[in-house]
Every structure is written in structure tokens, then in C-alpha cells.
Fold this protein.
Amino acid sequence: MNFQSEKKLVLDFYEALQNCKSNNMSEILSLYCSEDLLWRGFHPFNEIIGTKNLNFHFWIPLRNSLSNLQRRIDIFLAGINKISGNEGVWVISMGHLMGLFDKPWLGIKETKKIGMLRYCEFCKVENNKITEIAMFFDIPHFMLQSGLKVFPVETGISLIQPGPLNNDGLMYEIQDPNEGNKTSEIIEKMIRDLVIWKNFDKVSLKRELKKSWNEDMIWWGPTGIGASFTIDRYIEQHAQPFRKTFINRKFNGHICRISEGMYGGFFGWPNLTLTPQKNFMGLKTLKKSSEMRVIDIYRRRGNKLAENWIFIDFLHFWKIQGIDILKVQKV
């Protein structure tokens, strides 16, 4: 399969959404998506069933807040998902939704300036309709642009994240399937290593990471953790403190995992169940089992991974921990 018809459907959907008027959005959603569409989004949206509900609860409020909305895509790919229960063709896009932040959204005060909502979206395509969508976005980063800092401690750095170094992430054309297979193999190997390795010291972590990652890797982490550059800084600024913070880590599996060309990615609902044993991101935790819904998008260079863009639903995680991030906004 070359996925061209599925890619075209999703791109046509995006164009129609961008060009339509607010009162026509329901029409567009019904045209391109199944009426019983399953949409998964970060808290406070969570699961939404049906195009009418999606329009009312997500698209209308977002479009009302971010005027002149544009979808700026940095990565676009498709592939066959082989995970049991979710088999089929999925299309991924990643980038930013950009507009003029003219009215409040989720209680976040408007700035009357550009607002950029970092997003990644997985679309399952069946019989020329989109039947499932997972759309994850970095709401804390959007809050940061509005002058709100809700996480007192960040081990990496938050910034407007760029697309791939090589500017080759938009795979609108047919790709060599052999390259996609290579990308899939290294992602699978990296996942196996994550499950097997238990040691948290720097030497062990470096040994683990060097199996799958280039030395000059870039880990584009979500706001609250932030981005890190090179294996050594990634260990120092994320891997080591994260693993020391959480115990009883359980990998719950993924709903979708695909690769095409030099890129691949996955998402789970949730990916991880884990228990904090100390404070995290400068906020007080409860020693109770919590969930992390995660998207990871990867770029391969040679036989190892080079870049990784990550989306974690921290609003959901902290809600389980007893903190409503949207209600503890601080300048």
C-alpha cells in the first residue's frame, strides 16, 4: 500500500476545516468523518463520541478563541497499524495550530497576540472516512505563551519547537517501504530496551540509550519537562530524574504504532501507569498510581534515532494527583 488516498483524505479534511466558516464546521466534520467518530484528546476534553459533540465541545470554542486559525504541519506520514484491535491505516500530522488569541480558552486569558498550540494528531481511515482521531496538544505550553507558569521546576527548556532538522518530515509522496521498516525496527528495539533496563545510574542509562540513539539526539519534551540536546544532557535533564521520581512503572501498550520513511510514532490511552515517590516538576504529589497518556514521534538518522517529539497529558496526570492545572494558573 502507498497510503496516497488516505493521505489525500486527511489533507482535504484539514483544508476544508481551515477554509470553512464556524457555522459550517459540523458539515465538514460529517463529510470527512464517520458520525460515530471516536476522538481522544487531552484533559479536559478526554473522549468525545460523534462529530456533533466534537464540534460543540472542541472545535467551536477553539475557533472562537483563536481567530484566523492555521494548521502549520511539520511532520506528515501514514502507515499500517498492526496492533490487535486497532489494525488499519492511520495518518499522522504534527505541528502547531496558530491563530490570534483573541478570546479566552479553557479559562486562559487572551493575549490579542499570536498563540501557537503544539499538537499531534493520529487519524484512522476506513472506507474513505476518518473513524478515530487521537489529538494531543501541549496546553501548558500554550499557557506559558500567555505569561502563565504553572510548573515551578523544569529540568529541560520550553520553547516553540521546530520541525525536523532535515526539513523532510512532510511525506506527501510515496515513500520507500524499506526505510519505514528500518525505522519501525529501531523504534521497537528502543521500546524493548525501555522495558528491560532497570538501572538509573548515568553509566547504565548511557549504555542503554546509545543502543538506539545518536549521540546528538534531540528530545523535544513537553512543557513541565522541556527539551534536551545530546544523550548526556537528556540523561541529566530528563531520563535520570524521571526514573528516580516514579516507581511501579507499568507499560500498558499502545493503540497505534506506525512508521513511514525516516519517521515513526505511537500513542497510548494511557501508555504508562506509575506512582510518584517524591515531588514532580516542583509540585507536591500523592503516592498513588497515576496515568500518562503519551504521543512520541521519532526521526531516524542512519541506524539510530535522532529526534523525538513528545506529548504528555499532564493536565490528566495532575488531576489524578489532586491538582487542577487550569485552576492554579500563576503569572
